[in-house]
Amino acid sequence: MVAQEIKIDLRSSIPAYKQLADYLAAQIETGALRADQPLPSESDLIDASGLARGTVRQAIAVLRDNGLVVTVQGRGTYVRPEP
Amino acid sequence: MVAQEIKIDLRSSIPAYKQLADYLAAQIETGALRADQPLPSESDLIDASGLARGTVRQAIAVLRDNGLVVTVQGRGTYVRPEP
DNA sequence: AAATATTTGTACGTATGTATG
DNA sequence: GCATACATACGTACAAATATT
């Protein structure tokens, strides 16, 4: 059973990793994901989106570059509290 | 013929992409690569280092994140002039 | 103008290592 | 020790932007 579907259009001119990053950013913006809460694991995001691992990691990298999340090896990626 | 050897130790605790990023950053620091000059292409860096393309790109991403270079698709990666 | 080559971008898949729980 | 989760590194294929012929 798939945790939750995240629809990605591979034919869109918007790259798949960007679509996923936008989706997750929206989750944070709207408060569906709150400060200090973990994002779904890479495996969960792979299952939910159908994307490859590298593509999922690329999406998370965007969020990290934008200061929205922080990642800790072995633990997970967490929503960054407002500065 | 290989443009120029860049020695990378895959057994080091320092990741290969970091070793390459450090090497290139040093080239910029010392002025071997100057402002607005292009870095070697990804293909050149692959040949010179023996690393895979993804690893080379990861190294360049570090430089970009640190504001040392800017990349333009179809053209190349250029040393960023001082702000 | 058009075709070709070069260069970076995206996406896939695999394997192994490292850190945490 | 074991399971989970992120990190590193390899390789492949095709797309898109730019430069060259």
Fold and architecture overview:
The structure is a homodimer of 83-residue chains. The first copy, chain A, contains three helices and two strands, in the order H-H-H-E-E. Chain A has 83 residues and is mainly α. The first copy, chain A, has a single domain, classed as Orthogonal Bundle (Arc Repressor Mutant, subunit A). Chain A has a two-stranded antiparallel ribbon with strand order 1-2. In chain A, strand 1 (69-72) and strand 2 form a beta hairpin. In chain A, helix 1 packs across helix 3. The radius of gyration of chain A is 12 Å and the shape is globular. The mean pLDDT of chain A is 95. The chains hardly touch. Chain A binds a DNA duplex (21 and 21 nucleotides) through helix 3.
Summed up, what is this model?
Chain A is built from three helices and two strands.
Can you tag this structure with a few keywords?
homodimer; 83 residues; Arc Repressor Mutant, subunit A; two-stranded antiparallel ribbon; globular; DNA-binding
Biggest sheet record of chain A: 2 strands, antiparallel
Shape of chain A: globular
Sheet with the most strands: spatial strand order of chain A: 1-2
CATH secondary-structure class of chain A:
Mainly Alpha
Percent helix range of chain A: 40-55%
- The total count of helices of chain A amounts to 3
Quaternary structure annotation: homodimer
CATH superfamily of chain A: Winged helix-like DNA-binding domain superfamily/Winged helix DNA-binding domain
The second-level CATH architecture of chain A is Orthogonal Bundle
Instruction: Please provide the count of β strands of chain A.
Output: 2
Calculate the mean pLDDT score of chain A and round it: 95
DSSP strand content of chain A: 5-15%
